[in-house]
Amino acid sequence: MFDYQGAGGGTGGDRTPIIKFSAKDGSFIAVDREQVDGMWQSKETELETPTKVVMDLAVLEMGWMAFKPAPHFVMVKAGEPRPERPDEMDAQGKPLYKWGFRVVLANKDIGLRELSSSSKNVYDRMVPIYKAFEAGKAANAGKVPVIEITGTDRVTQQLNDGSSQTWRVPRWELSGWIDRPEMLDTATQSTPDVPAPATAPPSAAAASDDIF
User: Fold this and answer.
1) 44 lies in a domain?
2) Which residues make beta-bridge pairs with 149?
3) Angle in degrees, CA 71, 102, 169, rounded to 5
4) C-beta atoms surrounding 13 within 10 Å
5) pTM of the model
6) Rounded to whole angstroms, what are the CA distances from 159 to 18, 100, 130, 166?
7) In this structure, are residues 29 and 168 in contact, taking their beta carbons and an 8 Å threshold?
């Protein structure tokens, strides 16, 4: 089951360095934490497209996420029973937790990253990626899907009050399969307020594709 159950927007991550997607301008931003004069600071690098990543869809998670202000997730692997939505409300009296997904991806340029989003428009673009993975995984045992990101598309969303909003969504597709790189098995999850250093790119022997 891979159904959208909420609304809203946002991205977040835990100890695995994150990559954010902005539904406003269509940018993918890799975020690293580094110490400057004893203080942790964020360093942001925009991912250039077109590009390819491997995506660990076998352990893709979906569920509820919120920022309080640190990110908090109530997630299960795709296909497992949907978790209960926490009942916390925001300052406007709306549910604090939004439905979304979380997945690990990697390539030689950005290393290992975690991508999450509770934007319905972004979630809708993940659905066909996951369905393609489900359709092809039996014929590709021991491999992981290659996702080709060629850019973004512009979408217009009609609101209940008659107005509209314009967003960007990823233009991506499952374009192939490669042997599972060891890097994917180093992803960790921990408390989000403990920064982790950037993950070094894998060695050339980690995979047989030019992604690495």
Assistant:
1) yes
2) 51, 172
3) 100
4) 21
5) 0.81
6) 30, 20, 27, 11
7) no
